[in-house]
Amino acid sequence: MSREPRKDRPQARFHGRVEAPGRLCAEPGCAEPGEFRAPVAPGPRGGDGPGAYRFLCLEHVRAFNSGYNYFSGMSPEEIHAAQRPYAGWEAESRAFTATGGADRPPRWADFADPLDAIGARFRAARPVERKDGKPLSGKDREAMKVLALDLDADRMALRRRYSDLVRQYHPDRNGGDRSHEGALQKVIEAYQQLKSSPAFA
C-alpha cells in the first residue's frame, strides 16, 4: 500500500493552515499568502458566536500570537473574576427532572391553549390512576378498553360487563352465527387478565 500523501490533500506542516490561492496576508504591505486565521482585535469577544477575523501569513500570525493578551483592557476585578476556578459555571442550567418522558410543561399563565393541543400531550405522558389508588398495568388498561370498562370499575362491574358481552357475541345467542368469535375471544382474554389483577381483587 502506498504511503505517499494524496495530492488533493497534501499534509499540512502547521495546524490551522487554510490554503486559499490568491488570498494575501491582511497585514498592510505583506505579499505572503494569508493562510492562518486570527481575530481582528485582541482581547475577549462580546456577544454570541465567533468574532470578526482576518487571515495572516505564518510570520505575522506568530507575531500576533506572541503579543496576544486575553486580559487586555480588563480591570483588575474583571481579571480576578475571570481567573476563578469556577468562572463561567454560575449560570443556572436546565433541571433534568423526570417528567414521564415528556418535556417540562410550559407555564400556562404565559399563553392561551384554547384547543388543549399542548396540555393534552403532557396529560398523556402520565397515565390516569384509579380513585382507589389500586395499580393498573399496561395490559390491565388494554383489557379495560376491550371491555369498555370505566377506569374505576369494581369486580362486580367487571363480571356484569363480561356477561353482557358474552351474551352479545356468543354464537348460541346469535342463531349459530360465528362471525363474532374473534371479538368473543378478545373479551374472554381481557376478562382473564382483569380478574387476576390487583385492581379487581
Word description of this protein:
With 201 residues, the chain is mainly α. Among the domains are: 14-74, no CATH class; 138-200, Helix Hairpins, CATH 1.10.287. Helices cover 31% and strands 4% of the residues. It is built from six helices and two strands; from the N terminus they run ββαααααα. A two-stranded antiparallel sheet has the order 1-2. α4 (138-146) crosses α6 (181-195) and α5 (155-169) packs antiparallel against α6 (181-195).
| Contiguous uncertain segments of 5+ residues | 5-10
Shape: elongated
Could you tell me the CATH topology label of the domain at 138-200: Helix Hairpins
Task: Please state the CA-atom Rg, rounded to the nearest Å.
Answer: 36 Å
Helices and strands: which structural class? mainly alpha
Quantity of strands, as a count: 2
Largest sheet: 2 strands, antiparallel
Output the number of helix runs: 6
The order of strands across the largest sheet is 1-2
CATH architecture of the domain at 138-200: Orthogonal Bundle
The percent range for helix content is 25-40%
> Overall mean pLDDT score?
79
Gap between N and C termini: 74 Å
Work out the strand percent: under 5%
User: What is the CATH domain class of the domain at 138-200?
Assistant: Mainly Alpha
Order of helices and strands: EEHHHHHH
Question: Quick summary of this structure?
Answer:
This protein is mostly helical. It has six helices and two strands.
Considering the chains and any ligands shown, give keywords for the structure.
mainly alpha, Helix Hairpins, two-stranded antiparallel ribbon, 6 helices
